[in-house]
Amino acid sequence: MADITQTAVAVPSPHRAGAAGAAPTRTERQTRIHAALERVANPERVYPVTVGAGVAAWLAFGAISKFVPDNVDLPMAATGSIEQTTGFVVIVSLVIAAVWAAIWVLGSVRGPARAWAVRHLTHDAKWVLGAGLWFVFWEFSTAKTGLLAPPYFDAPQQILTSLWAERGILAESLGSSLLLLAVGFAVGLVAGLATGVTIGWFQAANYWVHPILIFIGPVPSLAWVPIVFVLFPSTYSGAVFMIALSVWFPITVLTRAGILSVPRSYYDVAQTLGAKGWFLVARISLPAALPSIFTGAFMALGASFVSLTVAENFGVNAGLGWYLNYMKGFGNYPGLYAGIVVLVLVCGAALTLLFRFRNFVLRWEKELTRW
Q1: What's residue 4's pLDDT?
Q2: From what superkingdom does this record's organism come (predicted)?
């Protein structure tokens, strides 16, 4: 009897466990299981040689920029630009090397930041090393040896100097391009969603519109330039149309494909519960088609940047496309590269925002989306 009593006391009661601490929820358990599986599939391993080589590469870039003399055959203007920003380049390279070395130290000692540091050392070490080696090659082949001949290839200091010197016109051009891109993308998105839903939902509309879509949609925006700037009252409205057209095609095709691929059982269940009409479109078709719609938005964003630069080159006297054409006309290649750097950063930021928004909206299928 005494043994039974002791056993009963030794077995933890669910109520006692709940009193000692809250039981993990289903989401927390799933998160822990996912983290454990992720650690098994992609173990976090720090390679000291790679991390140390990354620090050394950035130190070497700073040392080459500061102590190796410039090529004597460089034009005087190029030499002045390089000397103007060499100090800044050296400081940036030393800061990157110091930050990376500090993360390396954090990853090797116990503490609350160790997991964060190990994660970055595992995933970013190759990128830090590759970027450092690229800048060493860039600096050595342009400013120091002239292996890549000027003016078509410029040193990083020359591009930095142009970025600072042209910051006013670059900021104005960036604002103009973002406004034009936002208006054209919004118009194309709304038109594409409306067309895609219509031809995906109504067979008669699909019969008439889909063949036109197949023939007109793939035509590049450059081919429409002569017609657009004649038919539209202003070059700005023509540019908006060109961007909207490049967005409309992929959004329409992917929205239609997403709606047509919704399982019939979804509609049967909803109709059994009394749903009909626009409720089926708004609450069944569109949510189920969202993965395809985001794929279309990804394709449309790239196409819209192409149309933006084309439109600004041919008719709109402002924007990054106009700035690139302006710099090319004067043979100002450092300024041209500075504009390209801004355009690259804008494209990367726009795609990153799109991916984050997609991950938030499609969080219910987080592990199923791979692009």
Answers
A1: 41
A2: Bacteria
